[in-house]
Structures are given as structure tokens and as C-alpha cells.
Design goal:
It holds the Pfam family HXXEE. Keywords: Membrane, Transmembrane, Transmembrane helix. InterPro entries: HXXEE. This is HXXEE domain-containing protein. By secondary structure, the protein is mainly α. Helices cover 75% and strands 0% of the residues. The chain contains nine helices and no strands. The longest helix has 26 residues. It has one domain.
């Protein structure tokens, strides 16, 4: 588990390869193919955010946290980061692949992808004083075009209904507020967590230097 907590985003590349082979080899409905590709993108997004170029731990604990007491382990640490992304995020994106006919189930990660555009494109760039941060490229090149494709397809197939939109929003709120924030940050978050990020992870993409440079200009 220690190795997996540290390298889960690299291990995900195996699942990325399997998902891409699945997309290429087998026949799918258009909606299922979009959802499968969207799952592939979230795996790429996580790798971009935490490995190359990385910087996700420092962005969360230093740039976004109001008063980071222990920036290598609070509010995000290696354990709750793994749980939030693997046990919650990956299932959130993978489940609708098997049930593409359930409109709200596929619409939820689609809308969440657009929300990621605001988080990475606006919020995090403002905090860092940059135009790019780890995770933004996969959102712009992956989640956004796939999201538009999904919405157009869902509209033409009659699945883009008010009920599905409302259920998707409720589902997103449940996943974000209960599973990610309450379980991930409240229950598994700990200022004295025994699962600190490795210093290599903390210094990827030179987030600390970018923040220092921004503070100098401010």
C-alpha cells in the first residue's frame, strides 16, 4: 500500500492502456464511446496533475489552502489523495461507461469536466500567477471537447432532459460534498497524518517558486 499510495497515478496508466484498447477493439454506442474516452482523460488528467508536470499537492496545500500548517500532509496527504482520486473520482467516471443509457449518470462527469476548466483555468492560475498548471491541458484538450460532444449527442437522443440535468447536479453535489470533502478531507484529513507527500511530489513544477514570484509582483 505504501508504494501504491505514492505511485497510483502512474499505475493508472495500465488501466488507461486497457481502456484505450477497449475503445479501439470493441463496438460501442456513441455515448458509451464518449464516456469511455472521458474516463481515459481523467486518468491522463491525474497523471498530469500529480506526476508530469505535477504540482498538485503543493497547489492544494499551499496555493489553495488558507492556512497550511503542514503543507506536505494537510489538508491533502498521500492517503486521502489516493482515496479521493481512485476510489471516488475514477469510479465516478467509469461507472457511466457500463450504464450509458442512464442519462444523469453520464451527464454528471461531463458537467464536472467543465467545472474543472474553471478550477484549473481560472482559480489555480490566479493563485499561482500563471497561465498553465498541471491538469489544465487534459481539461482543455480532453474533457471540454468530449463534454461538448456528449451534450450534443445526448440532446439528439433525447437524454438531455431537465430531470437528468437536476439529477446530475444532485449527484455531483453528493460526490463533491460528501465523498470528496467530508470523507476525503474531514475524515481522512489530518494535520499529523502519517502519510505525507514525498518532497519530490511537493516540489514538482516548482509551485513554491511560482508562488514566491507572484508574491514579489503583488
Amino acid at each position: 500500500m505504501k508504494w501504491y499510495r505514492r505511485h497510483w497515478y502512474s499505475f493508472n496508466l495500465i488501466f488507461l492502456l486497457i481502456a484505450l484498447l477497449w475503445a479501439i477493439t470493441f463496438s460501442h454506442s456513441r455515448l458509451q464511446l464518449i464516456l469511455l474516452l472521458n474516463f481515459c482523460v481523467i486518468l491522463i488528467h491525474q497523471f498530469e496533475e500529480f506526476c508530469f508536470p505535477g504540482g498538485g499537492p503543493a497547489v492544494s496545500n499551499i496555493a489553495l489552502a488558507q492556512h497550511p500548517v503542514h503543507p506536505d500532509r494537510y489538508p491533502l496527504n498521500e492517503n486521502n489523495n489516493m482515496v479521493i482520486n481512485v476510489c471516488v473520482g475514477n469510479i465516478f467516471y467509469l461507472l457511466p461507461v457500463f450504464f450509458p443509457q442512464i442519462g444523469w449518470l453520464g451527464l454528471a462527469p461531463t458537467l464536472f469536466g467543465f467545472m474543472q476548466l474553471y478550477v484549473h483555468g481560472v482559480t489555480e492560475n490566479r493563485k499561482l500567477g500563471t497561465y498553465y498548471n498541471g491538469g489544465l491541458a487534459s481539461v482543455i484538450l480532453g474533457h471540454v471537447p468530449l463534454g461538448i460532444w456528449y451534450l450534443l449527442t445526448a440532446y439528439h437522443t433525447g437524454m438531455l432532459t431537465i430531470i437528468n440535468i437536476l439529477l446530475a447536479v444532485i449527484y455531483i453535489i453528493f460526490v463533491a460534498k460528501v465523498l470528496m470533502q467530508w470523507l476525503g478531507f474531514k475524515v481522512l484529513g489530518n494535520q499529523n497524518s502519517p502519510y505525507p507527500f514525498d518532497q519530490t511530489e511537493m516540489h514538482r513544477f516548482h509551485i513554491d517558486e511560482k508562488l514566491a514570484k507572484k508574491h514579489e509582483h503583488d
